[in-house]
Design goal:
The chain has helices spanning about 15-30, 35-45, 50-60, 65-75, 85-95, 110-115, 140-150, 165-175, 195-200; strands at about 5, 15, 80-85, 100-105, 125-130, 155-160, 175-180, 190. By secondary structure, the chain is an alpha/beta fold. The strands form 2 sheets. Strands 5-4-1-6-7-8 form a 6-stranded parallel sheet, sandwiched between helices. The protein has a two-stranded antiparallel ribbon with strand order 2-3. Helix 1 packs across helix 4, helix 2 (about 35-45) packs across helix 3 and helix 3 (about 50-60) packs across helix 4. The N and C termini lie close together (about 10 Å).
Length: about 200
Amino acid sequence: MISFIWDLDGTLLDSYDAILAGIEETYAYYDLEFNREAIRRFILQHSVWELLEKVAAENDLDAHELNIYRGSSLQEKNAQIHLMAGAKEVLAWAKEKGIENFVYTHKGANAHQILVDLGIAQYFTEIVTSADGFARKPHPAAINYLVEKYDLDKASTYYIGDRQLDVEVAIYAGIQSINFQAYPSPVNQEIQKLLDIREKIFYNL
């Protein structure tokens, strides 16, 4: 049986503008220089947390405090978050085909409300967020938890994301990967849009 474990930001959720707005407010609060394009490139290649760690180290600040401020700012921007093109369609298709869907995201507990607000929470068997306390990607602890709890077949379980980090967590967990990035690994299949999952990769299910 095929199972999908979904990333959220940049994968199911068109949320990077809201994320960047939250980072910009955080930088302004701490009187830091904000270069939008450079920061966007950094978080796509690495993560927001790595950005905050780097900025904290360079400016003698506390990364956890930066993240707390950013998180409180970001919660006010839920209305700026929208579904990626094809998100609801591919989730409905997966449900129709008997594919079980999960979420593993670095977003906090606020992710639950966002998915409810966007009308897709009902598609997921379980939603794992940073509030659940697992080590951050690319550590595979959260994926291992879902695999073991639901007895998922690793050979037919796919982590779907938009960054190199998402491919790496799939590799470390021993599962498959679907990603918007071209990553040189036999476990990864590149897509250009979400509906490619239906139309190209699993069309004959």
